[in-house]
Specification:
binds pyridoxal-5'-phosphate
Amino acid sequence: MSRKIFFTVGPTQLYPTVPSHIRTALRESILSISHRGKQFLDIYKNTTDNLRAVLGIPPDYFIFFLASATEAMERVIQNTVQHHSFHFINGAFSKRFYTTAVQLGKNANKTEIPHGSSFDVKSLVIPQETECICVTQNETATGVTFPIEDICYLKQKHKDKLVALDIVSSAPFTKIDFPTADLTFFSVQKGFGLPAGLGVLIVGPKAFAKSKNLHKKGIITGSYHNFLSLEEYARKDQLPETPNVLDIYLLGKVCGDFLDKGMDIIRRETEDKAAAFYDYFDSHPKYKPAVREERFRSKTTIVIDTPGETAKIITYLAKNGFIISSGYGLFKENQIRLANFPSHSIEDAKRLINIVKYMHV
Ligand SMILES: *Cc1c(COP(=O)(O)O)cnc(C)c1O
């Protein structure tokens, strides 16, 4: 069978160096070592050091490892919200963040607009009692991005409130302004091109202090994965539980590869591939980018309207070795979604475009 290339939005194409890192991991018995021993502590330190360099994480921010991004939503709400959270909802993932807060018994407020629309942050009123503002920076379901300058604007206006950012499908491309983001999270099977099963939550001093404060008041902030417990172990380069050692190892290695290549180059390549996709579909007679306004177009998850032809396109591309995502939920049959992560080469992106170009079936 010939090689398949995954332009799916997650899980996705592995970063090209991953197979060789897995072989090294096997050779060095990393799958059998103790998660309390020296070898693991070194792996942990390498991963957190490299991740700090890749994303520009300040030294006073904690890095916590979790099971997934979905878990991170729950941890954020439990550890920073006593009563009131606020949510921007314009797709399935931002909705899940909101639902998590409701399920945890919080008073979750929201501004909800049709899936696929973008927010006008300047005309919006956020209730004074809000403790944490929850933003999905890149809505994977619809390909709408929440510009970083809009997030800075919100923080500027609401200095007293915490800001939590879901960057699952925009990391490591999007440059996070850390003073703005009190909490930031992602999982590794999207932009980092790794096997699924690891979430990362980056917690700033104000968010950590809030969690401590809730804990002191007797509010339940979770058990082994509350921030106090996570911090206690992070200080020792460990986790409370037996973690996904392989994924933590691979994340450190891939971040090392990103740094060797240079984040500027990775970001520039992402811009170039996004431009190639958008330019092509902007002038396509039938298939058009779903997000019309350029400022809100995601560079990393590109969503195209395909009036009723999704199944046809997916089948045709699969025959040619390219696996892509359908639309999400209601858009299943009328959109396709194309990932544009560091694991996707410009050559493969161009080949994919060419196949669509000559698809007259
Ligand atoms: C994929 C995704 C998630 C969920 O990630 P898991 O690792 O499956 O928990 C959350 N938010 C966004 C924006 C996503 O794209």
